[in-house]
Give the backbone structure.
Amino acid sequence: MLTAFTNFIELHLAGPMAKIANQRHLRAIRDGIIATLPLIIVGSFFLIIAFPPLPQSWGIYQFLSSNATTILLPYRMTMYIMSLYATFGIGASLSKTYNLDVVSGGILSTIAFLLTFVPVNIPLEAADAAGTSGFVLPMANLGGGGMFVGIITSIFAVEVYRLTDKSKFKITMPDQVPPAVARSFESLTPTLIVILVISTISYYIGFDWHSAVSKIVSPLISATDTLPSVLLLIFMITFFWAFGIHGVSIIGSLARPLWLQILEANTTAAAAGETLPNIAAEPFYQWFIWIGGSGCTIGLAILLAFTAKSKYASKLGKAIITPSIFNINEPVIFGVPIVLNPTLIIPFILTPMACATIAWFATRLGFVSAVTITAPWTLPGPIGAYLATGGDWRAAVLNCLLIVLSVVMYYPFVKIYDKNELAKEHALEQEKTETEELVSTTVVESKS
């Protein structure tokens, strides 16, 4: 039964899922958003500086909190407007897959996104009070809230660029013209089309891109920030991994824009000193579910390193324990392997689900702070959890408890796995002994 199911997955599901993971538009979205991670990580750390995990009576806390507005400016110019950077990254990545100029594609995507905003001409009195004048660009949708609009406009801009290039509907310069200048002139036609189309829709038809997309996406965001949704995403990611398909590339590419909006709502609330509204942002998965990597395999690595009796499992455990501490678990998935391993697939799927359920209720009940920071994913679990929650020591404790839970849940399955490996080694040793005895006997008979 299991063999038939495995064959069905390999024959009918693995191929289509691999194609989806490598689909150029999904890959461009994934790469463009991932390119903003340095800005998101560094920018979000200014939240910790502005609101340090220190007693409020301390002088350093009072100094930092009184200067929070200034301290948060790097955050507001990085993570707070991350959709602007992601749009450029998506356009550049998609252009690369079409062998188009990546800089031109990125710039086209950026202007297409910015044309969905209607600048506000603030009254003179308000302008004087704010120390500015003229038109002001509303920043709220430059962050995670504008991510889906940025994705749509980026794809549109690059597809226009591709069509004009493919149809030769462009200005072509002589070969003697420097390449940079030639590319600029080649981009004139798609730039004209993109600006005319987007500005007509935004300014003359009066279509509000962000409100329209928000109405469509809001139910998805609300649904994503629920425990059933979290468990479903965990199941899909681990299920694909169990058959050698990169689950994070497929599911993560689709869910990451939603995760970013959930995280941005938390960071905005944290910067304003308000209650954090959401739980299931991407750092929640990283520090309370994917401890050691997908499948919460830190427990598996610990057991193999310190309890395995078979030579293979013991040596493998000692080799993978260090990468696992830093959340790198491809050696676990493909080295144990977990892929197509009926014994270890069960805890690989169930362990992160159990961790998610405990962490969800711990956060919902206020035992642990919600995540607001995107900490570097290669940090050891307790440190990453501490930073991701803005310096909540309880998060580090919860992470440690979930590691213990991972060890407990993997233990009976590792014992079965280790026993099987030990049996294989004994069988090989027995076969080797019998072969040596046969060779020895043959030599003796030939001499006699």
